[in-house]
Amino acid sequence: MKMTIDIWSDIMCPFCYIGKRKLETALQQFPHKDKINIVWHSFQLDPTIESLPGTDLYSYLAERKGQTRDWSVKVHQQLVETAKQEGLTYNFDKAVIANSFNAHRLIQLAKTKGLGDAAEERLFKAYFTEGENVSDTNTLIELGSDIGLDEAAIKHMLESEAFAQEVTDDIEKAKSYGISGVPFFVLNNKYGISGAQPAEIFLNSLQQAWDEDEIKVKS
Prior knowledge:
The protein has helices at residues 14-29, 57-65, 69-84, 101-111, 116-128, 137-146, 151-158, 164-176, 199-218, and strands at 3-9, 36-42, 184-187, 191-194. It is α+β, with helices and mostly antiparallel strands. The protein has a single domain (3-218), classed as Glutaredoxin (3-Layer(aba) Sandwich).
């Protein structure tokens, strides 16, 4: 018996990276973790965002939220501490404001090679820890090659419209499910988990979904 976990995520969403770690913590304790298939889906928190290298993230978000820069710094510092509890390093001082659409296209390409999870992880780290511009073509080629994708294939994809429809389809499917924020996890097309919940909640939901399917199989 297999179980699928569908995850809608934006690689510029701080809670998505944290949620990924919390799920991984839960899976380490799940007795059937080798029977789990994780499928990543594209989502953009702000599809209209422009790539603005060199712009201060704190000031940018403060202006968009109608708040002060000090407020923005404090909110982001809280995120840094939350991420640290999961073993993650967030460097918002280095973060580059960017549109994530092409990064999602790279993930879609990676999925065709069984590298969807590796692509998510690499892009999360690039954005939150390394301060990389995840909308820059050369950066995406380098990040994709880091996980084993062919550089020429990445370049060809970025120079075309390849995988754009797949990204759009994922976003539309999220809307049809009523998903308005990420991360959002769907277990076996049945249980929805919104947000970066504690590992215990993931573990309990995994066990419940597994037990119910096991009963169906046996009956």
